[in-house]
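ugh ok fine here u go
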Amino acid sequence: MASQNICVYTGSNTGAKSDYAAAAKTLAAELVARELNLVYGGAKIGLMGVIADEVLRLGGEVIGVMPAHIAGHGVAHSDLTELHVVDSMHQRKTLMSDLADGFIALPGGGGTMEEIFEVFTWAQLGLHSKPCGLLNICGYYDHLHAFLRHATEEKFMKPAHLEMLLIRDNPHDLLNAFEDYKPKKENKWY
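structure:
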């Protein structure tokens, strides 16, 4: 993979299991070892803060993108390589997508799901050819993966499109899959 920036979507909370934060740190180490920069939501809290802090601690670069209305709550990370403060969530997601060469979702809530599904849908529509993946820590995404298989069985998603969402249970394997990723040219509508 010739990319330099990986966008990571994740929670503003750390979650119920310490394994989630440990995985964020392991992903950070993998990014830095592969000389990949982190693009993320710009917060100093939750798993977002964990991964950003670890990339920075290891000498990597971190680019945050945060809407002004969230930055105004005092959650913006102040030690990033770059912090872009934008006017809206739409501008945030557009800039993150433009900056990124691939997208990973760590565990997170509704915002994380919305962000990864938007770029995954754009990939299906042929709007980009960047890899999209779920880091399935402690089976966090097992039910979501089962649902997507169900949607495929029910003919609401093509098998080739489901295969475009790379799902692995450790950062090393997921980033290896990103390196090997070849986008599908499957038409969305027929």
